Amino acid sequence: MPMFERYNKVQKAVLETTLHLIIDRELQATSMSLIAKDSGVSTGNIYHYFSSKEDIINELYKAIVLFNGEFVMKGMNEAESVLERFRRAWRSVIELGKQHPKGFRFIEQYSFSPYIYEQSKLEAYKGGWCGPLEELYRRAVEEGLFVSLDSHMMVQMHYGSIVYLLKSHQQNMLELTDDVAEQAILACWNAVSKEKGWNG
């Protein structure tokens, strides 16, 4: 899985296996012995790299958020307009959810879990895409493009809408075509824009 490319073979096997188990069985049902059995890595070897199940969960969280950040921010260009970057970023978030559904579901389900340490959340925030996107929204407010609302709140509000669409897509309740994605992104833009439509 590309999101674990920066890890060694053992760590990668543990992280990949843990992600699959958590999504298929839930966090509480995922034990160290089960991770060892399914990954083919001995418990002793796992403990060489991770001190506990919580440690694995937090490393998994950081790895996915960092990968997501790189995926979404790739190709973002400061020379582009706020509108172009807005569209590119949200299209990438949708593409991320479609291409990497398990990683997407993990972040969506466990971002507020007590399993995730505050330090992990802080590191993830710096390396993820929410921070840069909030900066883009701040700039849009400063330039008079967006209504004067808190940028963090606006990003979270829009993310909630996109999450709902991706969940519907994953459960075969909605076909998330490029056209539907474009309409959804336009709706997000219109919700906070002082001028409605792409040409505003």
Automatic annotation (TrEMBL):
Keywords of this entry: DNA-binding
PANTHER family named among the record's database cross-references: HTH-TYPE TRANSCRIPTIONAL REGULATOR RUTR, HTH-TYPE TRANSCRIPTIONAL REPRESSOR FATR
GO molecular function annotation: DNA-binding transcription factor activity; transcription cis-regulatory region binding
DNA-binding region: 31-50
Name of protein: TetR family transcriptional regulator
Keyword Cell division: no
Alphabetized InterPro entries for the sequence: Homeodomain-like_sf, HTH-type_TetR-like_transc_reg, HTH_TetR, Tet_transcr_reg_TetR-rel_C_sf, TetR-like_HI_0893_C
Alphabetical list of SUPFAM superfamilies matching this protein: Homeodomain-like, Tetracyclin repressor-like, C-terminal domain
Domain HTH tetR-type: 8-68
Organism: Paenibacillus albidus
Domain of life (superkingdom): Bacteria
